[in-house]
Amino acid sequence: MSVFKIFRIAASGLTAERLRMDTIANNLANANTTRTPEGGPYRRQVPVFAPILDKFMRAGTAQRSGFSGGGVQVVGVVSDPSPPRLVYDPQHPDANADGYVEMPNVHVVKEMVDLITATRAYEANIAALNSAKSMAQRALEIGR
């Protein structure tokens, strides 16, 4: 595997995890939003990732090295289909006839756990990038 391929794979992971952290921040910012332009409460957003396969795997032939990965790509950001939380607050302007308000399906604790996981994955990609950079520098020093 070339060093440049390692850079590409780590960079795709950094990009994906940054988007994941941005999505989590957006979810946390809208944790109490009861009105959206679409109507109803805010829906939690979740990024969807897919592997990037090498050209050999896309062509349907086996690769000799056994490694077929080429990084990760973001397929899209989808809404979490779980139902909104119902909170009893008859004074709220968005309360229904029974006094319940539909609140976003964002759980702060779950978002924080996802944020820690995304941060660790981001740090792991930085470590891989730094290791590849160090290997490339040492390879260049051999030629001196």
How would you explain this protein's 3D organization?
By secondary structure, the protein is an alpha+beta fold. Helix content is 46%, strand content 19%. The protein has 3 helices and 4 strands. The strands form 2 sheets. A two-stranded antiparallel sheet has the order 1-2. 13% of the residues are buried. The mean pLDDT is 88.
Q: For the largest beta sheet, what order do the strands appear in spatially? A: 1-2
In quaternary terms, these chains amount to: single chain
Number of domains: 1
Largest sheet: 2 strands, antiparallel
Distance between the termini: 23 Å
- Percent of residues in helices: 40-55%
The overall pLDDT, averaged over residues, is 88
User: Structural class of the secondary structure composition?
Assistant: alpha+beta
In DSSP terms (H or I, runs of 4 or more residues), the helix count works out at: 3
H/E element order: HEHEEEH
Percentage beta strand: 15-25%
Low-pLDDT stretches are none
The whole-angstrom Rg is: 22 Å
What does the overall shape look like?
Answer: elongated
Strand count? 4
Short description:
With 144 residues, the protein is of the alpha+beta class. The chain is 46% helix and 19% strand.
Write the layout of secondary structure elements.
Blueprint: H1 3-29, E1 45-53, H2 55-58, E2 69-79, E3 85-88, E4 100-103, H3 108-142
Antiparallel strand pairs: 1-2, 3-4
Helix pairs in contact: 1-3
Annotation keywords:
46% helix, alpha+beta, 144 residues, 3 helices
